[in-house]
Amino acid sequence: MSFLCRSAAVLLKPHRAAPAVLSAARLYSSGGQYEYIVVEKRGEKNNVGFIQLNRPKALNALCDGLMREVGQALDAFEVDGDVGAIVITGSDRAFAAGADIKEMQNRTFQECYGGNFLAHWNRVSTVKKPVIAAVNGFALGGGCELAMMCDIIYAGEKAQFGQPEILLGTIPGAGGTQRLTRAVGKSLAMEMVLTGDKINAQDAKQSGLVSKVYPVDQLVSEAVKCGEKIAANSKLVTAMAKEAVNAAFELTLAEGNRLEKRLFHATFATDDRKEGMTAFVEKRKASFQDN
Fold first, then answer.
1. Which of 81, 88, 79 has the alpha carbon at shortest distance from 40?
2. Is 165 a catalytic residue?
3. H or E element: which one contains 38?
4. What pLDDT does residue 32 have?
5. pLDDT tens by residue, 108-143
6. Whole-angstrom Cα distance, residue 227 to residue 85?
7. Taking a C-beta distance cutoff of 8 angstroms, is the pair 134, 94 a contact?
8. Backbone conformation region of residue 136, classed left if phi is above 0, alpha if psi is from -120 to 50, else beta
9. Is 275 an annotated catalytic residue?
10. Which member of 133, 165, 175, 241 is catalytic?
11. What residues contact residue 166 under an 8 Å CB cut-off, 6+ apart?
12. What is the largest CA-CA distance in the chain?
């Protein structure tokens, strides 16, 4: 959080978007003027949403304005039928070096509790479409938490991850104590949270925090390639698969298996499941229509 510098089909084909979502879509489609991020589509078919944090002088510190813009961009990509996956990245030097300490330095308990401080950050973790974090450089405090809100984390060789809030007299407040523990286990998470120590990309991969490590100059392109692979599948069924995997963190094994079975059965009500199996039998490439 700090250091300086459930249903699958509902949202994929909305019949009627909320005003805030429509506003975000208009902003994106018109190439809107974001102040703190760069937003575009990437991939050979322009089917990967791309968000780059862009506060280089502050090492992409996560100020309130930046996180609200990230939420707007995610809303726009969520209702874009061409986009099948989203990549979030920063710069070579820093994915995000943490929350903006100057913004929160003088906040009171009453302001934080009464205003549910940082609640809107969670938008990243509630997006139906898969989100990939491409992490180069520092991912500290809120930057590490932002990466962990994503579904997949790719790291550059020089990436560093940490939760150093303890050094500022506070603790993680955007999921750091919860997601980090689930990703790397109690001992390493406790060590990182209680000492403020960082881990490098190789240690992050070994501990299960990231799935792949790439050279710095190849990281973003590899993340986009992963997004393209995901976007080539049925967006509807992809959302079901994401829901099922995420449920593993919330449910018992028996409850999770029941949810998985229901979602598996639900795929048999989709045209894409029929097309996928028919294409396999006919030895051709499936043509998914997202329905």
1. 88
2. yes
3. strand 37-42
4. 61
5. 888 878 877 778 888 999 999 999 999 999 999 999
6. 5
7. no
8. beta
9. no
10. 165
11. 193, 194, 195, 196
12. 65
What's the sign of the alpha-carbon dihedral 207, 211, 212, 216?
negative
- Number of DSSP helices (H) and strands (E) in the chain, helices first: 13, 10
- Average the pLDDT over each of 28-37, 75-84, 86-95 and give the range with the smallest value: 28-37
The DSSP call for residue 33 is -
Separation CA 206–CA 216 (nearest Å): 18
Catalytic-role residue among 61, 99, 159, 231 = 99
User: Torsions phi, psi of 14, nearest 5?
Assistant: -70, 140
Q: Which of 18, 35, 134 is nearest to 76 (CA)?
A: 18
The phi, psi pair for 135, rounded to 5°, reads -105, 110
Cα 181 from Cα 160, distance rounded (Å): 17
User: Of residues 90, 139, 141, 145, which has the active-site annotation?
Assistant: 145
- List, for residues 196-247, the tens digit of each pLDDT value: 999 999 999 999 999 999 999 999 999 999 999 999 999 999 999 999 999 9
Residue from 93, 135, 98 nearest 118 by CA = 98
**Half-sphere exposure at residue 31, Cβ-oriented, CA atoms within 13 angstroms:** 0
Query: What is the rounded CA–CA span in Å between residue 49 and residue 51?
Result: 7
Query: How far apart are the C-alpha atoms of 272 and 288, rounded to whole Å?
Result: 5
In three-state form (DSSP H/G/I as H, E/B as E, the rest C), the secondary structure along 159-217 is: CEEECHHHHHCCCCCCCHHHHHHHHHCHHHHHHHHHHCCEEEHHHHHHHCCCCEEECHH
Q: How far apart are the first and last CA of the chain?
A: 38
pLDDT of residue 90: 97
Q: Which of 142, 143, 227, 276 is catalytic?
A: 142
Active site residue 247: no
Examine the residue annotation and report whether 204 is marked as an active-site residue of this protein. no
